[in-house]
Design goal:
The strands form two sheets. Strands 2-1-3-5-6-4 form a six-stranded mixed sheet, sandwiched between helices. The longest helix is centred in the C-terminal third of the chain and has 16 residues, at 250-265. It folds into two domains: 5-108 and 257-285, Leucine Dehydrogenase, chain A, domain 1 (Rossmann fold), CATH 3.40.50.10860; 111-248, Rossmann fold. It has helices at residues 20-30, 42-45, 52-61, 86-91, 110-121, 137-148, 161-175, 186-190, 234-241, 250-265, 271-282; strands spanning 5-12, 34-41, 66-69, 83-84, 96-100, 103-107, 129-133, 153-157, 180-182, 195-198, 222-225, 245-247. Helix 1 crosses helix 10 (250-265), helix 5 packs across helix 6 and helix 10 packs across helix 11. The chain contains eleven helices and twelve strands. The radius of gyration is 19 Å and the shape is globular. The chain has 289 residues and is of the alpha/beta class.
Length: 289
């Protein structure tokens, strides 16, 4: 009981199955902390993202050291923060909020989480032309990661074209005019793509299905997901069935948590240990074929 205590939480909708609490609590234990990580589920509370001001204030008053932020709050939380890291400012999305000395500082660890997972799982993948489904809070971070990974051209498709245009415009200004564009027709974009990334929530248990017709996939493509529950989405299952190389969202969940843990605690987490712990929790879901 003499170990330092830390209280953390996750704000999002439909997050009952999240493995983030277990990852942070286990690593905290390994680091000599008494960690408690609470789920603040908007769906369970019967509220929307408009409840964020009250939830943040309550977390501060209860002594939370930090909060992770997920769908649908990664952009809605921005005006409620005192300061943003450079990455969060550029991306316009926050998934980690450090609460310290009466200040709320927003960070984005999503992009590095995706990039690190992809580097480890598919270091030799072709990245000349990449298509990404989704331009929301996670989508902006993953699009940035794709460009940092060396994508020569990224096409973004979203049900909200204005949102896709905003992400494309921001990235093109940084990586070069015309390097990131927007398309409305996935068929045309997929036809010449080396790889596909899904950053939409379609494929999660609460949003079943695929973000595009699976008939558009080709065996020569790679397909990456950011969803990790379920670990094998309908999109990945269809991709594997025709021989595509795939990357599930598990590693992204781990590596974004690695950075978030460091921001919350000031301690350096053991990334390999966190990855092993995550794998042990999802192993029964892992496809064997």
């Amino acid at each position: 009981m003499s170990r330092p205590a830390i209280l953390l939480g996750l704000i999002g909708s439909g997050i009952a199955a999240s493995l983030t609490p277990a990852m942070h609590e286990r690593e905290g234990d390994e680091q000599g902390l008494r960690s408690q990580y609470k789920l603040i589920d908007l769906m369970k509370l019967g509220v929307g993202a408009d409840a964020l001001p009250d939830l943040l204030l309550s977390a501060e008053r209860m002594g939370f050291a930090g909060l992770n932020i997920t769908f649908p709050c990664k952009q809605a939380v921005l005006p409620l923060l005192h300061e943003l890291s450079d990455d969060a400012k550029f991306l316009g999305a926050v998934n980690t909020v450090v609460l310290r000395d009466g200040r709320r500082v927003g960070h984005n660890t999503d992009w590095w989480g995706f990039a690190e997972n992809f580097r480890r799982r598919m270091p030799d993948a072709a990245r000349r032309r990449v298509v990404q489904m989704g331009a929301g809070g996670a989508g902006a971070a993953v699009a940035y990661a794709a460009m940092m990974l060396g994508a020569e051209h990224l096409t973004i498709i979203d049900v909200d074209p204005a949102k896709a245009e905003a992400v494309a415009g921001s990235l093109s200004a940084r990586f070069g005019a015309g390097t990131v564009t927007v398309a409305a027709d996935p068929a045309a974009a997929i036809g010449s793509a080396d790889g596909l990334i899904n950053t939409t929530p379609i494929g999660m248990e609460k949003f079943p299905g695929t973000p595009l017709p699976v008939e558009l996939l080709r065996s020569s493509m790679w397909v990456a997901e950011i969803i990790y529950f379920p670990l094998e989405t309908a999109l990945l299952r269809a991709a594997r069935a025709i021989g595509c190389r795939t990357v599930d969202g598990g590693g992204m969940a781990v590596f974004q948590a690695v950075q978030a843990f460091h921001l919350f605690t000031g301690l350096q987490p053991d990334a390999e240990r966190m990855l092993r712990h995550f794998t042990s929790m999802v192993q029964p879901q892992t496809p064997t074929g």
